[in-house]
Amino acid sequence: MIVDKTDMVMWEDLARRDGTRSHIYPQLGRYKSDEFLKLVRRWINFNSRIKILKTDLREEAYGEDEILFSLPDGHDIYGVDISASTVNRAADVMKKKGFSHEYIEADVRELPFADSSFDVVISTSTLDHFSDDACLSAALSELNRVLKADGMMIATFNNGLNANFRIFNAIEKLMHISRYPVKYFTRNKLLYKMNVADFQCDEFEYTTNIVSPANSILRVSRAIFGKRTTDFVASRMLKFADILHRLPLINNITAWFIAVKCTKKRLR
After folding, report:
1. 181 found inside a domain
2. Distance (Å, rounded) from C-alpha 152 to C-alpha 147?
3. Packing angle between helix 133-146 and helix 187-196, nearest 10 degrees?
4. Domain for residue 58, yes or no?
5. CATH label of the domain that carries residue 86
6. What global pTM score does this model have?
7. What integer pLDDT is reported at residue 172 of this predicted model?
8. Strand (E) positions, the chain?
9. How would residue 20 be classed by pLDDT, with cut points 50, 70 and 90?
10. What are the backbone dihedrals phi and psi of residue 255, each rounded to the nearest 5 degrees, phi first?
11. N or C: the chain end with fewer CB closer than 10 Å?
12. Is 1 a domain residue?
């Protein structure tokens, strides 16, 4: 696939506008990170040294929702991002924290790695921000290519059953607050997309029950009422999120993301 550079310009422009500003309220960011890390620790075997690729570095560069700094020690960790500014910012944060990961400017649709390079791919809401299905298919094909034969991918996608999230995202689009594509996925749609890309879906889970527009509310609250009051409001929001997570009959419509654990299909 010949990659259109429009996405690179868009994400680079967004990174430069944001500068070093966090893209998510700190307590919500830590909650989002913790929810994903629970899946990582349950689904990945860290007992032997493995090589891990993360498909974007926005969390590590700009938020408290980082993943790579919280992984167990003793593994080979790589991260890519289409934005040079994001890569540089993430690398600065990584070095300050004392890590020695490898961060590279690259498009997930055109990865600079050899076939069968990685044991694990981690993708936290990267693949749901393409403007069309052809881009998603190209990215999935590349991730399949760089995974080893017994490799695993853990990915999260915006949950298509969450009407609350979709409504507020539509409002943000109308108000020109959201500046990048947002796609939504159901379990059946993911099964189809992964199957076409020669992935087998082994497990699904609905995760991260932050009710929109929690992040915007907390940002405004902090500007008006200050950090102490806003932190208290955030803690109440997270208690409510935990309650929603514990309600299996509605968790699939209140979760922000649908997470999937995939393995490469075995050749017959």
Report:
1. yes
2. 7
3. 60
4. yes
5. 3.40.50.150
6. 0.94
7. 82
8. 51-54, 76-81, 102-105, 118-124, 147-158, 199-207, 257-264
9. confident
10. -70, 145
11. C
12. no
Of residues 181, 240, 173, the one with CA closest to residue 208: 240
- DSSP state string for 197-263: TTEEEEEEEEE--PPTTHHHHHHHHHHHH-HHHHHHHHHHHHHHHHHHHT-TTTHHHH-SEEEEEEE
Total domains in the fold of the chain: 1
Cβ-based neighbours of 164, under 8 Å, separated by 6 or more: 211, 212, 254
Q: Does residue 268 surpass a pLDDT of 60?
A: no
Q: Give the alpha-carbon dihedral of 176, 180, 186, 188, to 10 degrees.
A: 140
Tokens of 32: 């989002």
Q: Mind listing the pLDDT tens digit for each residue in 145-199?
A: 999 999 999 999 999 999 999 998 888 888 777 778 999 999 999 999 999 999 9
Residue 90 sits in which domain range? 6-264
Examine the pLDDT at 43 and tell me if it is beyond 90. yes
- Please state whether beta strands 102-105 and 118-124 pair in parallel, antiparallel, or not at all (unpaired): unpaired
- 62, 21 in Cβ contact below 8 A? yes
Output the average pLDDT for the chain. Answer: 94
Pairing of strands 257-264, 199-207: antiparallel
Domain-embedded: residue 133: yes
